[in-house]
Amino acid sequence: MDDDDVLINTRAGPLFHKGWYHLFYQYNPDSAVWGNITWGHAVSTDLIHWLYLPFAMVPDHWYDINGVWTGSATLLPDGQIMMLYTGSTNESVQVQNLAYPANLSDPLLIDWVKYPNNPVITPPNGTETDEFRDPTTAWMGPDGTWRITIGSRHNKSVGISLVYQTSNFTTYELLEGVLHAVPGTGMWECVDFYPVAINGSTGLDTSAHGAGIKHVLKASLDDTKRDHYAIGVYDPVTDKWTPDNPKEDVGIGLQVDYGRYYASKTFYDQNTQRRILWGWINETDTETDDLDKGWASVQTIPRKVLYDNKTGTNILQWPVEEIESLRLRSTAFTEIVVGPGSVVPLDIGQATQLDIFAEFEIEIISETKHEKYGCSGGAVDRSALGPFGLLVVADQTLSELTPIFFRPVNTTEGIVETYFCADETRSSKASDVYKQVYGSTVPVFTDEKFQMRVLVDHSIVESFAQGGRRVITSRIYPTKAIYGDARLFLFNNATGVNVKATLKIWELNSAFIHPFLFDQN
């Protein structure tokens, strides 16, 4: 095994400090598989180009000797930074620990100090000692004390989020009851809890509450490895959260991302007043493949998060605007008509790194009927109104391709329901990778066209529908559609509509990711 074989896992404690964005992440410096979890540390001035720093924390005390796991940073009004993280002890008990920078004047926050009296929180009575992890960023309550929430489960099947109160980050009181619980959802990990403005264009500090604010509660479901969220109302007096729609509660409704995506984490960027979201894209090949290639897992492009005040039911996710700094040559296509059963090549040259904006309109050319279709049949499953969209990371002969598509469906209620989907089933000739169809319904209003933005980066495809109402991340392993052989196509596999497409496509430069070069002087 090479010395640079590594596993990069979920991110922890993102923050902005003295001109630098900081990303900490679970990291195995010894192998491309799980184990020896250490905190890697990287910094950036623009969220796109990253510089590796020395490890922030390593498993070197009894309370984290089996791993320095996920955590969160809280920036205090006086400038202090409190980092709470889960440690797996010498007996594999999950405990919560405190760390803080050794030197706050250091913009790079190179050195971190673990609190001498760790752990600061141990599993409460009745809680499984190995199902108690991932403390959130703290928020200030109306009584002037801080709260955090930690994921766990009750009776094996009820996902719960416990609330702790503290005034000093070293001593904590478990509050009565839970922030929220949902039966049947199992263990909640990597819980995230943050406010969103109902009529706002900026993010909110985690402690914001009051009129015009909703709260997002997100949990990563350990049983299904999916990130779910719901929007609701937080009562800062009782420390209880109630979903706006109980039928779409956490774990049984909306997903943050409908693709290969897990353990997401947001932070408030006080520099630009944005709520920024990161997610983890794990592998779908074999462990042997990961060891052979020497690395495993990547992070998504950071996304800005806002409340969708048009639907009132979901968040909007959108790539941070800094991604535009990578744009190179652009190509525009206007009102290309794609007939039923057609594929149209888009002459843009190499199509391995792209930022694609596409709008579609449909013209019904034959009678439609009630249909029961969704995403599961993929792009080959033809219906009257769909599917139509893009074939990304495709080779010239279409032996490999990844369709990103819409499928409007006439329901029995007489309305059109739209699905947004990503079909990986023909994305690779390789036989030992997991390939499936991802997707969900997406709200499309009568005054809107079908809109998608797709970021293509060789083996990662991040697809955003209707301004970010739904997002699908795909991890693919092309063997033919690589480098100069990758192409982009429009397609329409509907039986009863013509599709008119308008696109603007940018070729993207590569982001640099390399070690920080310290001044030798």
Automatic annotation (TrEMBL):
InterPro entries on file: ConA-like_dom_sf (IPR013320), Fructan_Metab_Enzymes (IPR050551), Glyco_hydro_32 (IPR001362), Glyco_hydro_32_C (IPR013189), Glyco_hydro_32_N (IPR013148), Glyco_hydro_beta-prop_sf (IPR023296)
GO molecular function: beta-fructofuranosidase activity
UniProt domain Glycosyl hydrolase family 32 N-terminal: residue ranges: 7-319
Gene Ontology biological process terms in this record: carbohydrate metabolic process
Keyword Repressor part of the UniProt annotation: no
Glycosyl hydrolase family 32 C-terminal domain span: 322-507
Subcellular location: Vacuole
Protein name (record): Beta-fructofuranosidase
Keywords of the record: Glycosidase, Hydrolase, Vacuole
Isomerase is among the record's keywords: no
Family: Belongs to the glycosyl hydrolase 32 family.
Organism (species): Populus deltoides
Known catalytic reactions: Hydrolysis of terminal non-reducing beta-D-fructofuranoside residues in beta-D-fructofuranosides
